[in-house]
Amino acid sequence: MGRVTTSTADLWHHYGRARATSDRAVPDTFRWSWGQDAGPGPEVLGDLTGRCVGDLGAGAARHAAHLVVHHQPARVIAIDASPAQHAMATDLYADLAPRLHIMQSGAVPHLQAMTGAYDVLYSVFGALDFTDPRELLPAAAAALKPGGRLVYSTLAHYLSGAPAQPDAVAADIPAKTPDGEATMMRRWVLQEHVWTKLLDEAGFTNITVDVLPAAPGPRTADTLLVSAHYPS
Ligand SMILES: C[S@@+](CC[C@H](N)C(=O)[O-])C[C@H]1O[C@@H](n2cnc3c(N)ncnc32)[C@H](O)[C@@H]1O
């Protein structure tokens, strides 16, 4: 039986590690869906030309690298709390500096230190899924410029098929420590109306939530694609 880890074990040590050994390319596409295979792309972020963009929970920074290479943002800051993910992103894409800035930090303290700095914040199954939204969403609102935009994809239901939560509560899900020990981590899988209420309480407007249906196959899931603006 696993235990809940409260230490600083990096529970993202293994994520994307095998892929990074063989696929070092900047992706040609940017997808929001769980399967990364279909659905809308970065156009959902609006025109990024000259914009300051932040990826919250960027992992290996593949989405951020795509934006830097295939769009014209002033800068994309790829933020991730995991030392392993930060190292992987640096190994893969450090040559895209200075327009890609790879930063190791928790999303909340980073955003709290960046008042009014960002035009666009986004997350692809990243920090929004694994951080208390009552801390993260107000911090994101404060870090956006007036008229700025937050867009994120998150699970529409648990991978088991169980429905998302009707309240703003996390569930413990299985994870692995760097040395392979079974443990648990917290994930927020919330129903559409819960996200809408939390975003509204954090000061966002123009909130939309779209369901991106899963492609057929094993371990697929529907995606919620959430978009909101910080008022002008
Ligand atoms: C499922 S991975 C997704 C990574 C990437 N967005 C992708 O699509 O490949 C989740 C990532 O979010 C990061 N993360 C979770 N909570 C975070 C937080 N509060 N601040 C920064 N990064 C966080 C983890 O370290 C992990 O790299």
The outline comes out as globular
The succession of helices and strands, N to C, reads EHEHEHEHEHHEEEHEE
What gyration radius follows from the Cα positions, in whole Å?
17 Å
Distance between the termini: 50 Å
Overview of the molecule:
This protein is an alpha/beta fold. The chain has a single domain (3-229), classed as 3-Layer(aba) Sandwich (Rossmann fold). The protein contains seven helices and ten strands. The strands form two sheets. The protein has a seven-stranded mixed β-sheet, with helices on both faces. A three-stranded mixed β-sheet has the order 1-8-7, with no helix packed on it. Strand 2, helix 2 (62-70) and strand 3 (75-80) form a beta-alpha-beta unit. The longest helix is centred in the middle third of the chain and has 11 residues, at 83-93. The site of S-adenosylmethionine has 18 residues, from strand 3 and helix 5.
